[in-house]
Automatic annotation (TrEMBL):
This is DNA-binding transcriptional regulator. Belongs to the SorC transcriptional regulatory family. The lineage of its organism: Bacteria, Bacillati, Bacillota, Bacilli, Lactobacillales. Residues 15-48 form the RNA polymerase sigma-70 region domain. InterPro entries: NagB/RpiA_transferase-like (IPR037171), RNA_pol_sigma70_r4 (IPR007630), RNA_pol_sigma_r3/r4-like (IPR013324), SorC_transcr_regulators (IPR051054), Sugar-bd_dom_put (IPR007324). Coiled coil: none annotated. It comes from Limosilactobacillus reuteri (Lactobacillus reuteri). Residues 59-311 form the Sugar-binding domain. GO terms for molecular function: DNA binding. Keywords: DNA-binding, Transcription, Transcription regulation.
């Protein structure tokens, strides 16, 4: 006879994996269980009908889902990827492929492509489709210098975009966040830096993602905040958009921090012809909703599970 403890664990693991989209690795950390144990519990849940799996072909209703999302969030385009699993690596790869195909259709001669960095953007960069567009510029929409050894993928993103669009990306060689507003204002007056910032404001196609306020969020790992500052941001913010922290309505949560941040102004994102938010995974749902509430994107690239929850 199956123990109550085994059933309880199987239910707990199944809810996290199937309903919340948490990966097996993340469940292992959360519940202090090994990967083999989690796999056995998931298998047990299926065998005992704790979990019943049915297959709904996402391609059969994908167009309807896209239409509903465009209507609800007033978007001009929605691209929905269909990853084979809810593992983070698979979701990122799927988003990267979908975005790369979209860019192949939308980027025109003489466009300015605004990019950021991180795992989502490097997934896009690795999937870019070689093309013969002419006079395309690539510019970073935020500072690129990290305060730690944590990889922000700037080098790889830059290399891939340079190769694809036969150009030399304009990098903002600055910390993402300065110690105070006065230092930042002084630095960005530099002619070279100011020209890069002006190019960013002329972006035709802006590519960006959102980050969570979870403890392992990239921005927190880069060393810009102490523990108390992280705790405050976790209480106030739904996530960050081009490293500017926003609440559930899409409003900036800390004006002083915002003044010290080197990144495109959120209102300037709205001016791009294609303002493309690329984000997936259920852990980012709250941040995605916040960005859409602020109407900073007119194009959304996400995965099918998040797309359904956005409705």
């Amino acid at each position: 006879m199956d123990s109550k403890q085994q059933i309880k664990q199987a239910v707990q693991v199944s809810k996290l994996y199937y309903l919340d989209g948490v990966t097996q690795a993340e469940i292992g950390k959360k519940l202090n269980l090994s990967r083999p144990t989690i796999s056995r519990l998931l298998q047990f849940a299926r065998e005992k009908n704790i979990v019943k799996i049915s297959i709904n072909d996402p391609l059969s209703n994908i167009e309807d889902l896209q239409h509903q999302l465009k209507e609800k969030y007033q978007l001009k385009d929605v691209i929905i990827s269909t990853p084979e699993s809810n593992e983070t690596a698979e979701i990122l790869s799927s988003l990267g492929k979908a975005t790369a195909r979209y860019l192949d259709k939308k980027v025109k001669d003489n466009d300015v492509i605004g990019v950021s960095w991180g795992r989502t953007l490097v997934s896009v960069a690795r999937q870019l489709i070689p093309n013969d567009r002419k006079n395309v510029q690539v510019v970073y929409l935020k500072g690129t210098v990290a305060n730690s050894t944590h990889n922000n993928y700037v080098v790889e993103v830059t290399k891939c975009f340079n190769k694809c669009y036969h150009t030399q990306a304009q990098i903002l060689p600055l910390p993402l966040i300065f110690e105070n507003k006065q230092i930042k204002e002084m630095v960005i007056k530099d002619k070279f830096i100011n020209e890069i910032l002006d190019t960013g404001k002329r972006t035709s196609v802006a590519l960006f993602t959102v980050e969570t306020t979870e403890q392992d969020a990239t921005l927190f790992e880069l060393g810009y905040f102490n523990d108390q500052q992280i705790k405050t941001l976790q209480e106030k913010a739904a996530g960050d958009l081009v490293s500017r922290f926003i609440d559930e309505r899409g409003k900036i949560v800390d004006d002083q921090l915002n003044d010290r941040t080197v990144a495109i102004a959120l209102d300037d994102l709205k001016q791009a012809r294609e303002s493309v938010l690329i984000a997936g995974g259920m852990n980012k749902l709250k941040a995605i909703k916040a960005a859409l509430a602020g109407k900073y994107a007119n194009v959304l690239v996400t995965d099918s599970l998040v797309a359904q929850h956005l409705l």
